[in-house]
Structures are given as C-alpha cells and as structure tokens.
Amino acid sequence: MNQVIKTTGLSKSYGKKQALEKLDLEIGAGRIVGLIGPNGAGKTTLLQSLLGLCVADGDIDVLGFDPRRERAKMLEQVCFIADTATLPRWMTVKQAIAYVAGVHPNFNEQRARDFLAKTKVPLNSRIRTLSKGMVTQVHLALVMAIDAKLLVLDEPTLGLDLLYRRTFYDALLNDYYDDDKTIIITTHQVEEIEHLLTDVMFIVDGDVVFDCDLDTFESRYRKVTVAGEQQSQAEALKPIGEIRALGGKQYIYEDADPQALQALGDVARASLAEVFVAKVQGGSQA
Ligand SMILES: Nc1ncnc2c1ncn2[C@@H]1O[C@H](COP(=O)(O)OP(=O)(O)OP(=O)(O)O)[C@@H](O)[C@H]1O
C-alpha cells in the first residue's frame, strides 16, 4: 500500500478528557475514507492532529511529514475544510479567488469559477452578504480548485441544501478525485457519502473500532426482513442489530451463511448507517 497517513499510539487529551486514545491508523493513496462516529467521538480532534492544528502525542506521518514539526511543507500537498468554515467577510468572492490564486501554487482559478457557476453565488458579492450555505459553497469551490494529494473534509456540507450537497459530492467524485488523491470525510449524513467511499472507519470514544473497505463491507453485512413466526429462528442466527418494521422485524447480520438467511425472508444489503448503529449502539433501532 502506498501509504499517505500512518499513526501509532496517537493520543490527545484536553485536561482530564481523553479525546484520542492510542489510536493506530493507516490510509493508503487513492482511498476515499469515511470517518463516522457519534458526537464527541474524536473525529475533529483526529483530523486536527493529522493537520498539525492541535498538538497530540504518538507517531504521526502524513505524506512523509510529521505535522507537528513539518507542517508548512506538509500543507503544500494537503487541503482541508473545517466544520467551521470562515472567510474574510469584507472580501468579494472574486477577491477571495484572486487571493488564493496569489498565495497557493496549486490553485486553479478557472476550476474555482466553474464550481461556483453551479451555484447562485454572484462573484461580485461581498462574503458578508452571502447566506451561511453560500459561504460554505465559496469555501468548497476554493478548496476543490487546489490540486492536493490529501483532501480533508470535516462535515463539508453542514448547512448546505440537499440539492447542492448532491452537486458537491458529484463534483468531488467526478471532477476532483483521481487515483493519486486521498480524501478523508467526516459527516453525520452517512447515506450521502456511502456510494463514493472506498473505506469506512467507525470512531468511538477516541479510538477506531471498525475499519473496512467497501467491497468487504458489501460481502459481510446483510439485512433480512423477517415475519413474526420466523423471528426466533432469526434471533438464533445471532444478528448484530435489529430494526422494527411494519409487519415484522429487520435483522442485521455479519458474516452469516447466505442460505440460512434466504430461508428467513427477504435479504438485502445493509447500509453503512444500519451497520454503524448496530455495531456502535449494539441493539435495536427504530
Ligand atoms: N478545545 C477543546 N477543549 C476541551 N475539550 C475538547 C476540545 N475539543 C474537543 N474536546 C472534547 O474532545 C472530545 C472529542 O471532540 P471532537 O470535537 O473531536 O469530537 P467529534 O467526533 O468531532 O464530534 P462531533 O461529531 O460532535 O463534531 C469531546 O469530548 C469534546 O468535548
């Protein structure tokens, strides 16, 4: 694996709060990794540690650099958008584009304009006159126009409407991504990114508790809709989660015998969100 990120024993505490707990992580080039976790699990702290934005303990290697000591060099090849996207409010959108063009060697001005052409953001508007979602659109356009080896997106679509969220993820996959780039995304809207991920990680209480590529995920997890009279057989096969459904129950299985599942009822793929809830909350879902 052509490795882009490797951490060993990554730990970070804020006073008594242990936000990251000896976290080991490896991400290879060309992967699109979804980092999924409950509120307060440590996702932002992990991304900030990788970007050198907070000082953590342990070994951290990002593109061959230690972000604590070689942050400036590392950032030449890394691009990120934080969940608190801010831009200078007095600038016009055009000026923001010109500014990034002036300071960033890998910025493609035309690309930024092309991304913005898919929005209703006027180039001559001052940032302070834009809605929150529009500011995020400008920020995303600036970030997506930078040719970086690693793109880190912390809740990139927070506050964006449903239509633009789709447009953004389409552009990310079709216009931005190629095999040389690695992308890490955190979001609570798991269903929106499921189709574009190559890998998924669940993070709980400051540690990665699940790390799986999507091909393996597709082959390991199933959801079966079971009518009332079959439920005791279904439970005997030890599902990892269950969902109450109209006229029966749906059970989530990990590595179960496909034939045994067929005998219980309708078998379908289990979604990332369903497996996440089953594994992290470990029980029934509404
Ligand atoms: N600056 C800080 N000072 C003190 N505690 C902090 C600070 N930043 C984060 N924490 C704590 O560290 C833990 C992890 O927070 P973090 O923001 O990394 O979680 P998250 O997974 O990104 O959460 P969310 O999904 O809610 O954004 C939480 O318990 C949080 O309260």
TrEMBL record:
A Pfam family (short name) is ABC_tran
Q: Which residues form the signal peptide?
A: none
For molecular function, the Gene Ontology terms on record are:
ATP binding; ATP hydrolysis activity
- PROSITE patterns of this UniProt entry? ABC_TRANSPORTER_2
Q: Residues in domain ABC transporter?
A: 5-230
Q: Which UniProt keywords apply?
A: ATP-binding, Nucleotide-binding, Transport
Give the species this sequence originates from.
Gilvimarinus xylanilyticus
Q: What is the lineage of its organism?
A: Bacteria, Pseudomonadati, Pseudomonadota, Gammaproteobacteria, Cellvibrionales
Q: Which InterPro entries match?
A: AAA+_ATPase, ABC_transporter-like_ATP-bd, ABC_Transporter_VariousFunc, P-loop_NTPase
- Know the name of this protein? ABC transporter ATP-binding protein
